What does this fold into?
Amino acid sequence: MNTARLRDRLAASDPGLLRLAAGLRTVGAIALTLAVLGLLRADVPHLVAGAIAAMVATFAIREKQRAQQAVTLALGLPVALASLSLGALLSSRVVSGDLFFVALIFCAVYSRRFGDRGTALGLIGFQIYFVSLFVGAKVSGLPELYGVLGVAFLCSAAARFLLVPETPAGLLERLREAFRARLAQLVSAQLELLDAGPEEIDEALKDVREGTARLHETALMIQGRLEEGTSDAAAARLVQRRIADAEIAAERLGLLLLSARSAERADTLTLHLPGAPAPRAGRMAGRDEAMARVRHDLEALRLLVLRPVAARSGTALSQVRNRLLGYREEENLPPAPPSVQDVFRGIGEAARAVLGLRIALDGPQDESDDSPATARSREELDAEDAVIDAGDEDTGTQEELTGLRRPTTRAAVQVAVGSSLAIVGGEFLSSQRWYWAVLTCWIVFINTASTGEILVKGYRRLVGTVLGVLAGIVLAGAVGQHTWTAFVLVLVLVFAMFYTAPLSYTLMSFFVTAALGLLYTLLHTYSLSVLVLRVEETALGAACGVIAAAFVLPVRTDRRTNDLLVTVLERLGEVTEAAVDQLSGGTPAELLDQARGLDQALADLRAATKPLTHPITPLRARRDTARYVVALLETCAYHARSLAATAELLSTHPSIAADPRLRRAGRRIEDNIAAIAAHVADERSTDRVETGPSIASLLDTEVPGTPRFGRVTDRVLRHVQRLDETVMGLARPLHVPVAAPKR
It folds into this structure.
């Protein structure tokens, strides 16, 4: 049992074990290279060169298919040999060497436009040239260094394909387990939210927000691996649908729990806006008794997420599943206030999503202990599965940017200019180790797209380097000249570097600087002055990178976030229009694909706003506005996903039918989204958002005696109403004018 819990926690903290695998694979490649070179009695400089080359050959390759990885690794070796040769040949020619280094940096960054393979080969070329500078490669020593590179690349291949192999199907399976574990963690956080007192409620709500965001992150990771990791497109769509169902059900359950705690319905925005106050508990007759049962059922739901029914002896867990699924039927709801009954309904829907997820991931289940309610849920799932096909994904067309408008070209020019400045400045600091400034300038541009991102990354790298220098002083003094002890510590630091890289750039910089301090010791160049120079070069490189980003073809953070905001609004409008149209009786569309496109656009925007929301930013008002806008967009995305998921149920659920009146209600939302997007794209736009009567009133029938809502469920109306309100809420922080309602 303890082993299972540890496995679940590890899966949740490291989805797909991606960080663990990257760290082990890189350390394995370095250790194997050192072992082979040690048996060949290589000297310390060659050991250091081999270790760095093995690390570069391993982490540079990012393709998903093993065959593509093998091809890139094979192409990387001649690129590395050529780069090493030129580094050795130009080492004595200062001007020519510097000019070539700048040209190499430009080509390495420009090659990113050719995808993962171009990025990998550019990275290998740059880093191996850096290795030649680091170990002081000479032409006379090239044959031995060629052999070292060959060993390093072979050991990298062995670590990748033999020691720590990774297949798309295996990675997807681990990501699925991570989704289950994070779903269980979210249910646990919701349980703590239910029990939280007045002093703990805000912290409990923060945990629910984080759990919801982590679950969404894992869903996006699965989405990116479905095509390679599943046997066919139909299976991929089935998994995609079940993941979406579980994500929506879990998020809705959290909102219902918030509403049940208070005397009135909670705002969806509360689940997405950091720092938003939690609704305080209100008085309601009969709620406390019902909440005790809710608590018991949440614990049962968590167990259902983590453990299949067949894993337990007898029928205890199947009875729990049957009871929770029974809440989907009105006659099985326990006596409770309406808001608490909504929680029971939410638990029932979450249990159904878990059942669907279990069937999609693990195949058919034992049905011998099914209750009538469970049997009906299975029939609904089977009906949905029958209509899920492998529809072609509409990728759309995008404008092809050319010349300096292309991001890779612009970044290449910026890095080349920044590196030139770093070379000049670095020569003044040290004619022997100026390349550290260039390395920092290069690194701060990786995976950045705006001046703000580069500034934050440069700041984090400088902080990590300063701390790493201090650690390097301590470790180098402790190790002395014990070569293999130092290499063991380097392996530990390299593993920590790769394991923490996605979590904290500062920590990654700390570990890599500490490792380099040990390598300096092995090369007999260790001194306090060298390590202080490392800090100075880092500061210089970061400053040169920021200067180049700010003055050479700059992409302002505001401009980038506005561009991404327009993209998010366009995706939101597409999903909303397609879902409302389908709910109104229109032609079915690929709603899940469109919803995931919205999620990915929102993830890009969230990443781009990090410089605006960073704690060091002096512009507090702009930081709060950015957080508020992103939270509003996340709320809109939740309601749009829910509408899309409901729309896809039309063909299989008799309780949900199209209502043409929804088209009129949705038109206002779509027009308002378009008006906000037009205003963000061009402040001179004259478009205005329009207020008006509630969505429910727009569905009033003109025929006396006709049911008000027809067969459109109350849940659909709530999602449309909340989406309408949230879109209107976006107008205020974005300064979009509001038009008077039409009469």
